[in-house]
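Changelog-linked ticket: K8Y example.
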Amino acid sequence: TSEKMSPYENYIEAAPLNFFLTKVFGIPNHYNSSLAVGIKDILSASMGNLISSAQFNYMFDIPWLVQQYPEQFRSKPLLIIHGSQRADKTTLHENAHRYPNITLCQAKLDIMYGTHHSKMMFLLYDNGMRVVIHTANIIHNDWYQKTQGVWISPLFPKLASDQDLSQGDSVTQFRKDLLEYLGAYGTNKHLQEWQETIRQHDMSSAKVFIIGSVPGRHTGASKMKWGHLKLRKVLQEHGPDGSTVKDWPVIGQFSSVGSLGSGPENWLSSEWLESLSTVQANGIVKLSKPKLNLIFPCVENVRRSLEGYPAGASLPYSIKNARKQQYFNTFLHQWRAFSRGRSRASPHIKTYTRISPDAQYLAWFIVTSANLSKAAWGAYEKNNSQLFIRSYEIGVLFVPSKVEENLKLFNVQGVDSSKDSMLFPLPWDVPLTSYTQTDRPWLWDIAYTDKPDSQGNMWCPS
Ligand SMILES: O=C(O)CCC(=O)Nc1ccc(C(=O)O)c(C(=O)O)c1
């Protein structure tokens, strides 16, 4: 019998790119009814009859997480993959202890300052499975009044037992790359069971590339597998051609900034921008490096936000890093998302794209856990022979030709007359809005006491 698609299923299939923002409380409902999901929607029974799930993340409120599952799923096996160590790990175990169905798996973090930043869900149903890759921590605040990104896979059907398991991958090698990412966690019985489950599902309908980061000093064949060099490799093979995107700017939008070096030529405008401006390696045409535009909230964006200054607790840009890299400010633009009703929903989403000068077209688009830091994207070492990454990250890359065979570009605003482009739901407004002369980037560890925030409070970090 052809299973009647529940309204939600229609909803997912109706979004050809499967790219959603999280619902925001306190904005007109119109902006939460299309292309917006809450965690309860993702875990709802209308998505499938859950058998077991896995949650990869950085921060967990376990009792809150259990409450987000429908009551009938709250005792299903749940694997939590985290990077907590020492006291944080003890706290996590104390909070998980009373749930016999919850197993904890600690991702190895042998490199200093590395974090398990990846945010991903595996949802196994009785009729298939879904993969969800997103940007929100598993805590109430991350799903309440922030702008967060969520990619929800189509329902991946189980392969028939007689089908050979080499079937079932997509034009973007989604399953192969996902298994390779999981392999980097090393030997954990529960994760290995999930790898086997993934091998048993047909993921040929996945239209996105995986862009992952795993801690390590990656050399040789592994050098292009992770971080910004994975992006470079994918764009070399499947990216736009140089003539189309000549002089198209690159845009980076993120919720935190690492230590980028004393000048743009240390990392930002050299290896990192070079990867993001990679084009199909057909022509030998040496392209000039494109303009880089960055989006990071200014103090006023945070002060006026729905949460007020406390939104800045999730924007951990430190004065220590900021004062070493004043040049960074010259790239900055404000957080504005009027088109999605989210100008006051502080961004925790991270997105990267290449956009036409008239802001009409996108050549590609990434939503990821990766902030603007070497820890996340990796930095060359030893004369560019290895890529040093500190953290686990995961994101998805949308490339027009992989979404639809002859599609060359995504279009951004209004209706595009030419048939060969598809509307992409940008999370933020174009054209970008510069900082004013008095605007400063939000720094989370200094006080703001001259103007109260939307809640009438000042910000006095200890
Ligand atoms: O790492 C750096 O270079 C600076 C410090 C930093 O960024 N820390 C951090 C930790 C957790 C999360 C998270 O929410 O998972 C985020 C985020 O996503 O903004 C950021």
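Closing comment: Example verified and attached. The pocket of K8Y is lined by residues 58, 115, 117, 137, 255-256, 258, 316, 371, 373, 375 (CB under 6 Å). Confidence is low (pLDDT under 50) at residues 1-7.
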